[in-house]
Amino acid sequence: MRDLSGVFKAYDVRGVVGEQIDADLVRAVGAAFARLVGGPAVVIGHDMRDSSPGLAAAFAEGVNAEGVDVVNIGLASTDMLYFASGSLDLPGAMFTASHNPAKYNGIKLCRAGAAPVGQDTGLDTVRAEVEAGTAVQHTGEPGRVEDRDLLKGYAAHLRTLVDLSGIRPLKVVVDAGNGMGGHTVPVVFDGLPLAVTPMYFELDGNFPNHEANPLDPKNIVDLQAKVREVGADIGIAFDGDADRCFVVDENGDPVSPSAITALVAVRELAKDPGGTVIHNLITSHAVPEIVREHGGTPVRTRVGHSFIKQEMATTGAIFGGEHSAHYYFRDFWRADTGMLASMHVLAALGEQDGPLSELTSGYNRYAASGEINSTVEDQAGRLAAIKQEFGGREGVELDELDGLTVQLPGGAWFNLRASNTEPLLRLNVEAADADAVAALRDEVLAVVRA
């Protein structure tokens, strides 16, 4: 029996095209997914990678073989696929490897209404059937493919959620990273009081200018320079499949995803007083503080979109944010959308007269290290050593919701957690100022890397 453990991840299917993923594999995945979700149809979208159209077509063949129809929306951002799944009330498949290099591709799956499909919610079932070589079980007529263009509908829906028509004119630089933002931004922003300077809008899955991962500082250098050069009010960068956005202010300085989470949370709470806001345990402690100050209820979760979406469903949360620049909205089927988050920031900026740096300063209360990776063979052993090192100290609180979080007296804290796919430990530190962050970071790393 085939072993696909290296391709089926916690939340998606992903690997190197031609080595780990090919048309035969995704055809089998399509058939198994169709059996999992049943009819009447599955909606399919794909990004701009060279391999995406062919893989999407093979997946559609597998779906059709089980007698299930396909709605093909063609080129799409991941959040546009979620819009299709939500608005059409159909399960969906998005072909993308997000910010991974050109040789990779993958499939993000969801049930009707953009409900996530992960290991515990159907992905393991699909994997088991593909590994076993389960034959097509449908004996009647094959399904059909219908092509539909939902880009304008997607844009119109977003504009019902955030009204930008009345804001002051803004100069905006957008770096699409040769990804799907280059396809969606021109339509979503069309006719709004935004003077957009586009960067790398040409769809190119080989990413000729830089990796489409704006969380890596080297990938926003061009954006920062262009914002300063043209005197823009704001810079926005999207990742490859445009489900994440990253923001820089008028000085070209990055605005942390935690600050964006807090800003959007305040706006959503103004519409829905007393609502619940989800944040993962690596976002700044400023986020739950600000949520409470504005009458909301913060709920802390593990890192990862399946945990955020599940907690949103359980609590009826209005919004959720992660340190990785994923932002989730109840009014967008609890799915993550970088575009909608960027529109909230533009609205907040354009509804007042001050610069973005001033607007976001109130959401930046502490200093942070960012995520620091250490290659460690014995992850459990190093985590145990940190627990022993800090656990006996007076006033220290520990929790193991996701890895190990250590809360120190005076407000400083850190989280150390293992990667699911690599021999890495990931460290995040927050404290009152940069010096305190550096001291705590060095103390933890001395044990981790001993």
Automatic annotation (TrEMBL):
UniProt entry keywords in alphabetical sequence: Isomerase, Magnesium, Metal-binding, Phosphoprotein
Cofactor requirements of the protein: Mg(2+)
Listed GO biological process terms: carbohydrate metabolic process
GO MF terms held by the record: intramolecular phosphotransferase activity; metal ion binding
Domain Alpha-D-phosphohexomutase C-terminal: 371-446
UniProt xrefs under Pfam families: PGM_PMM_I, PGM_PMM_II, PGM_PMM_III, PGM_PMM_IV
Entry-linked CDD domains: PMM_PGM
Residue span(s) of domain Alpha-D-phosphohexomutase alpha/beta/alpha: 7-133, 153-252, 260-366
InterPro entries, per the entry: A-D-PHexomutase_a/b/a-I, A-D-PHexomutase_a/b/a-I/II/III, A-D-PHexomutase_a/b/a-II, A-D-PHexomutase_a/b/a-III, A-D-PHexomutase_C, A-D-PHexomutase_C_sf, Alpha-D-phosphohexomutase_SF
Family of this protein: Belongs to the phosphohexose mutase family.
Protein name, per record: Phosphomannomutase/phosphoglucomutase
Organism phylogeny: Bacteria, Bacillati, Actinomycetota, Actinomycetes, Pseudonocardiales
